[in-house]
TrEMBL record:
InterPro entries: Glyco_trans_2-like (IPR001173), Nucleotide-diphossugar_trans (IPR029044). Residues 16-183 form the Glycosyltransferase 2-like domain. The keyword Metal-binding does not apply. The lineage of its organism: Bacteria, Bacillati, Cyanobacteriota, Cyanophyceae, Oscillatoriophycideae. Its EC number is 2.4.-.-. This is Glycosyltransferase. It comes from the Bacteria. One of its GO terms (molecular function) is glycosyltransferase activity. The keyword Transferase applies.
């Protein structure tokens, strides 16, 4: 069962909700119900992409489609599309017919019945904004941390692509954006992990980013999350890869920002490898960090001295430990 992938807007649909799910049998009902509880004065549709789960997720979404056939359209590929969920994500987005698109993953949910209405009102009133988002609470399923705000800082009321390139402060489940801001996804999009961040950047080329200071959603961190389930080292490598793709795609317009952010990611990688006892890779990425900062000598010298000091102190301690054992 496939949704119609027409790019034209359906004037009767104000908002399309792109809901992507895979092996979310524990969570998907809560995600769908959090959409159905919305109190709105417009029509909306749910485009639900189920990426051939190995659990009962598909049975659950078909059951909901049977109950709400006029509200829910399904995308049900006959095999898992892979690419860390990017292919099914793109399919759901292309099937959306509304003026605005809201995002929700099958393991997250909304907590405020006025969420969609408030975001629609915001975008209707702020034509300079391509995107708007709001606060969400991060929950750690294993109980390792207490629930906390998604961001550890207060986002600006209005942000730009320059801010977004420095870090992804937009929770996926809080996103609403104007449909049709760019023509096609880049051909490299399927090969990345941070698809939501890249989508935000593609959209933010065409308008500003508005922030609604209200907690209206829940982001769930668990071991099976595509990004949150990765090691810190793997996450950093994935982010660096995105920066490399984005820099070329944006024709190096924001090269200085990208260069600095890559340098700091190399610094984080060096320290992560150091913490794992891999001092060779720690040195390798410390050098990469230094090379990117050469054009900014004062900042570069401070960063690299601190970084190499931490790495080589660890290396000397490891060497002395080996001597003491012999």
């Amino acid at each position: 069962m496939f949704a119609n992938n027409s790019q034209s807007f359906n004037k009767n649909i104000k908002v399309s909700i792109s809901l992507v799910t895979f092996n979310h049998e524990k969570y998907i009902k809560q995600a769908i119900e959090s959409i159905l509880m919305q109190k709105v004065n417009f029509n909306y549709e749910i485009i639900l992409g189920e990426d051939f789960s190995s659990d009962t997720t598909r049975d659950i979404v078909i059951e909901y489609h049977t109950k709400y056939p006029d509200k829910i359209r399904l995308i049900l590929p006959e095999k898992n599309l892979g690419c860390s969920g990017q292919k099914i994500f793109v399919q759901t987005l292309k099937a959306c017919q509304g003026e605005y698109i809201a995002l929700l993953d099958g393991d997250d949910y909304w907590t405020d019945p006025e969420k969609l209405q408030k975001q629609v009102d915001f975008l209707d009133s702020n034509l300079e904004c391509a995107i708007c988002f709001h606060d969400v609470t991060t929950f750690f399923e294993d109980g390792s941390q207490k629930p906390r705000k998604y961001n550890d800082f207060e986002p600006k009321k209005i942000s730009t692509i320059e801010n977004l390139l420095k870090c992804n402060f937009i929770p996926t489940c809080s996103t609403m954006y104007r449909k049709g801001l760019f023509n096609e996804f880049p051909d490299w999009y399927d090969s990345i992990i941070c698809g939501d961040w890249v989508l935000h950047i593609l959209n933010s080329q065409h308008g500003k980013i508005g922030y609604i200071n209200r907690d209206m959603g829940a982001y769930r961190v668990h071991s099976h999350g595509v990004f949150s389930g990765m090691s810190r080292i793997k996450q950093l490598h994935e982010v660096i890869t995105c920066y490399e793709y984005l820099n070329k795609y944006l024709k190096f317009k924001y090269n200085k920002i990208v260069k600095f952010e890559k340098a700091y990611k190399y610094q984080d990688l060096a320290l992560a490898y150091k913490d794992n006892g891999d001092l060779d890779n720690a040195k390798k990425y410390a050098i990469k960090c230094r090379e990117l900062l050469l054009s900014e000598p004062f900042i570069g010298i401070i960063v690299i001295i601190k970084l190499l000091k931490r790495i080589y102190v660890s290396k000397m301690a490891a060497y002395k430990l080996r001597l003491n054992k012999t």
